[in-house]
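A reminder from the course coordinator: this example appears on the midterm review sheet, so study it carefully.

Given structure:
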């Protein structure tokens, strides 16, 4: 019997634990049992064993809730193919995961495979001995399946070693979905969604008024700070702030400009939505998946979400008539683009795992074209694998999301790709709290009436924290400088390319 882990017990009421089927037979030993199994780009035989043939329980933890029904089938198929491996999969919310994984690692009870939290850089995680290099277990055939740029120093690699694999293609997750039927009920044109802040606020108010307590203008997963942070940074970037998640400072002003007009405009837009009564009353007490479910039931006109929501609504709410729109821009017009990051690190292998070979087999099967095609066809994500998106996407809103994301976003430079030694800076950088996400959450909750002071304090502290982290990194021997965060050849309307990195050196 698999022992119940402490982290699972903590969230037994809210975290989903999917335990694999008990193996009833074992096939012949792997012919390569004396060597290290390597994840490759091919699937292999229908029924196999891990190299040792021993019964193994592999523990996997993440927050990919939209993938749940597909992952359950994936696990069942995996266990049928490798009958000596049982998967213990724990699904949590983002906030639960961030709290739980740190405790699990400190107590020596880390799962075998788990993603890096959104509030932590890869360099910090590696410095904290969370992960081990994947290089002994993945070969070129496996890596060549992935889109160009998936394995880059400073992003998913450190010191020439691969520590993490991206989950999906890089597209912004702050586009807006809207309910076309609620548009019609409010006298709005569903084929002409709002384009400016004023139009967006007016549309939300009209939907709320027409809803008469049954539907509201907008809903969000108000408990999740990360979603508020993304909204503030991405939408302000459309206004020209130059903020993005890859750097503590702005690409435009070269400092932490959280007190800029562009950020304040976003804060005031959301404050106006609150003052109008346009937010669904449950907004501040629910998570993003819960907000997504209520939107699917027709209780809100707008929601900020990623492409993964499309498949969930198609499955759970097949009659939902919804569209996709770009985020609204300031009334004076668009002055920037949504920042599209280089591929972000996601899943990694625990430094303390006792089953690295079996974990590598899991990664091979998970990042196989067959399974990735299932996710794309279902509207769950844009795959990180080459060619899968074009051949698999069948849902109109999915293609619409991709097209809008490409039109309104641009790839921004990553300081760690420019200078990998910045890993030491990020490792020493202390994330400032309350951050811009906390402040926007406070504005919508009504706890912060005027965000100006809080934003100015945040800007000052971030600048000081970055200076401190740079000084600390230098004292440790890293060759770093504040100029590593400044990209003189960056233009907001162009994708930052590998050639751009070379030309700025």
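Designed residues:
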């Amino acid at each position: 019997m698999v022992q119940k882990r402490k982290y699972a017990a903590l969230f037994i009421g809210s975290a989903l634990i999917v335990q694999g089927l008990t193996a009833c037979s074992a096939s012949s030993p792997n012919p390569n049992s004396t060597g290290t199994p390597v994840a490759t780009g091919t699937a292999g035989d229908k029924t196999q064993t891990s190299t040792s043939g021993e019964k193994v329980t592999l523990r996997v933890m993440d927050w990919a809730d939209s993938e749940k029904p597909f992952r359950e089938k994936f696990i069942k198929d995996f266990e049928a193919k490798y009958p000596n491996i049982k998967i213990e999969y724990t699904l949590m919310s983002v906030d639960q995961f961030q709290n739980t994984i740190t405790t699990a690692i400190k107590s020596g009870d880390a799962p075998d495979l788990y993603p890096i939290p959104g509030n932590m850089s890869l360099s910090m995680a590696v410095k904290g001995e969370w992960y081990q290099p994947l290089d002994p277990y993945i070969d070129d055939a496996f890596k060549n399946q992935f889109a160009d740029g998936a394995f880059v120093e400073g992003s998913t690699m450190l010191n020439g070693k691969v520590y993490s694999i991206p989950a999906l293609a890089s597209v912004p997750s702050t586009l807006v979905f809207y309910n076309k039927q609620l548009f019609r009920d409010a006298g709005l044109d569903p084929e002409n969604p709002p384009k400016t802040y004023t139009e967006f606020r007016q549309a939300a108010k009209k939907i709320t008024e027409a809803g008469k307590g049954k539907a509201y203008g907008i809903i969000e997963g108000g408990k999740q700070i990360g979603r508020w942070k993304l909204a503030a940074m991405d939408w302000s970037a459309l206004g020209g702030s130059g903020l993005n998640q890859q750097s503590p400072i702005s690409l435009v002003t070269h400092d932490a400009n959280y007190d800029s007009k562009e950020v304040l405009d976003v804060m005031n837009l959301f404050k106006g939505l609150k003052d109008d009564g346009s937010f669904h009353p449950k907004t501040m007490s629910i998570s993003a998946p819960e907000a997504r479910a209520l939107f699917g039931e027709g209780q809100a006109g707008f929601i900020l979400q990623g492409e993964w929501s499309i498949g969930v609504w198609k499955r759970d709410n097949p009659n939902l008539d919804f569209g996709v729109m770009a985020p609204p821009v300031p009334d004076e017009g668009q002055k920037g683009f949504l920042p599209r990051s280089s591929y972000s690190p996601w899943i990694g292998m625990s430094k303390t795992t006792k089953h690295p070979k079996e974990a590598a087999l899991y990664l091979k099967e998970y990042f196989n074209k067959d399974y990735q095609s299932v996710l794309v066809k279902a509207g769950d994500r844009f795959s990180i694998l080459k060619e899968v998106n074009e051949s698999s996407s069948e849902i109109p809103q999915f293609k619409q999301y991709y097209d809008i994301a490409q039109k309104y976003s641009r790839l921004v430079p990553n300081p760690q790709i420019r200078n990998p030694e910045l890993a030491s800076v990020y490792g020493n950088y202390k994330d400032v709290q309350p951050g811009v996400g906390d402040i926007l959450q406070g504005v919508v909750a009504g706890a912060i009436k005027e965000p100006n002071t809080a934003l100015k304090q945040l800007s000052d502290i971030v600048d000081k924290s970055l200076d401190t982290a740079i000084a600390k990194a230098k004292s440790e021997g890293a060759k770093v400088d504040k100029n590593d965060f400044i990209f003189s050849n960056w233009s907001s309307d162009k994708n930052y390319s590998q050639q751009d990195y070379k030309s700025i050196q």
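Confidence is low (pLDDT under 50) at residues 1-37. The first strand starts at residue 16 and ends at 19.
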